Amino acid sequence: MHAFDILGDPVRRRILELLADGERAAGDLGAVVQAEFGISQPAVSQHLKVLRDSGFATVRAEGTRRLYAVDAEPLRQVDEWLDPYRHFWNQRLDALATELARGRRERRAADPTPKGTDTP
C-alpha cells in the first residue's frame, strides 16, 4: 500500500498525531479514536494493523499492554517526495512571516508606554 493511501485515512492520521508525542498503549489510542470517530475497537485495531504492516508504527509488549510508537522512516520518505513541491508553500510562509513582523513593529511604534516601566 502506498504511503499516501495510509495517510489518506483520517483515523490513521489521528492515530499518528496521538503517537507524535511518544509511545501510547493500544487501549489509550482506542479510547480516544473510538470517542472521536465513533468506530468499534476492532476497527481501531484494524487501523493499527495497517499502520504496523506499512511501517508507520511499531508495537512492543509491556506486560499485557501493547505500546505503539511512530516509525519515522516512512514519514521521511513522504517528506522527500514532497520536497520538489515545497517552494509552493514556503514562499507563502515567508510572506506571512514578513507581514507578522511588520504588524509587531507597527504595534510597538503605536504603543505610547515607555519600555521597561511598569505602569499600573
UniProtKB/TrEMBL annotation:
<dbReference type="InterPro" id="IPR036388">
    <property type="entry name" value="WH-like_DNA-bd_sf"/>
</dbReference>
<dbReference type="GO" id="GO:0003677">
    <property type="term" value="F:DNA binding"/>
</dbReference>
<dbReference type="InterPro" id="IPR036390">
    <property type="entry name" value="WH_DNA-bd_sf"/>
</dbReference>
<dbReference type="Pfam" id="PF01022">
    <property type="entry name" value="HTH_5"/>
</dbReference>
<protein>
    <submittedName>
        <fullName>DNA-binding transcriptional ArsR family regulator</fullName>
    </submittedName>
</protein>
<dbReference type="InterPro" id="IPR001845">
    <property type="entry name" value="HTH_ArsR_DNA-bd_dom"/>
</dbReference>
<dbReference type="InterPro" id="IPR051081">
    <property type="entry name" value="HTH_MetalResp_TranReg"/>
</dbReference>
<keyword id="KW-0238">DNA-binding</keyword>
<keyword id="KW-0805">Transcription regulation</keyword>
<dbReference type="InterPro" id="IPR011991">
    <property type="entry name" value="ArsR-like_HTH"/>
</dbReference>
<feature type="region of interest" description="Disordered">
    <location>
        <begin position="101"/>
        <end position="120"/>
    </location>
</feature>
<keyword id="KW-0804">Transcription</keyword>
<feature type="domain" description="HTH arsR-type">
    <location>
        <begin position="1"/>
        <end position="90"/>
    </location>
</feature>
<dbReference type="GO" id="GO:0003700">
    <property type="term" value="F:DNA-binding transcription factor activity"/>
</dbReference>
